[in-house]
């Protein structure tokens, strides 16, 4: 597995898909170990009670017996349906914790029933508008993370004060950090603050994955055929900074695409250059709007929330025709029939 990871790193670099490979030093160990054929150094122990590394070191399986999904996984491991495994270590509250990731043969149990309708999405840096066959709604991406973001900012300000008090030579006369290697030797309190920041970053990422998974499941409950505009999420990151980094709309689209494919559906990206859905109307008029204008108003009498209206229009774009064009007649007929 180590040889394969080295090859993939070099291959990505040669193809221009990643940076130059670098080697981990002695102080930075591996965070995961994987076994694909289950015959190498990492494999299931002979009694099936855990993962064995080498000849004698065994990590026993531990799972929540109240979870039917983990019972399902344990039964499949006992039946010999394990195809590959991985051990992942994560630092939680300044301590290393280890988890087993298993790839099993078969169809996993479904927590949510997937719908059969058509879903239109309009994804923004902080909000998402969802239009389905039965209704429409708009919500803020991961609004529950705002409290953690404020707590993180408080800890970062505390660490900055400790840095300035403990190593004033690191800053110039205007209070800016000098370039080059920082010579600050963290105190005990500064080390504790750093650990709290790391733990809060971990909790924020885990909470974000949970919220995005819940939203993706609710979207798939309306339908597995999903259409949304193709956006540059890196451009949103450069423009809106922390908000996009905290809410990660690009990560949500990746998760939604994976879940939709698993449910037999697909997330289709619509080209914005040919459709211009945020500027279009069902009457065929194209009118530019400033970002501060959040309501769509047209001389034909249509008044609607800008994001919800874009989510409605993306449902009337044929993804099989290039360049993508809005079906104005179909959108108008459906709007009139509402």
Primary descriptors:
338 residues, alpha+beta, five-stranded mixed β-sheet, three-stranded antiparallel β-sheet, 10 helices, 13 strands, 38% helix, globular
Q: How many helical elements?
A: 10
Low-confidence stretches: none
Share of helix, binned: 25-40%
Order of helices and strands: HEEEEHEEEEEHHEHHHEHEEHH
Fraction of residues in β-strands = 15-25%
- Write down the overall geometry: globular
Strand line-up in the sheet with most strands:
9-8-7-10-11
Q: CA-to-CA gap between the ends? A: 57 Å
User: What about the largest sheet?
Assistant: 5 strands, mixed
Alpha-carbon Rg, integer: 25 Å
Overall structural class, as computed from helix and strand content, comes to alpha+beta
Can you walk through the features of this model?
With 338 residues, the chain is an alpha+beta fold. It has 10 helices and 13 strands. A 5-stranded mixed beta sheet has the order 9-8-7-10-11. A 3-stranded antiparallel beta sheet has the order 1-5-6. Strands 2-3-4 form a 3-stranded antiparallel beta sheet, with no helix packed on it. α3 (146-166) packs antiparallel against α4 (188-220). It is globular, with a radius of gyration of 25 Å. The termini are far apart.
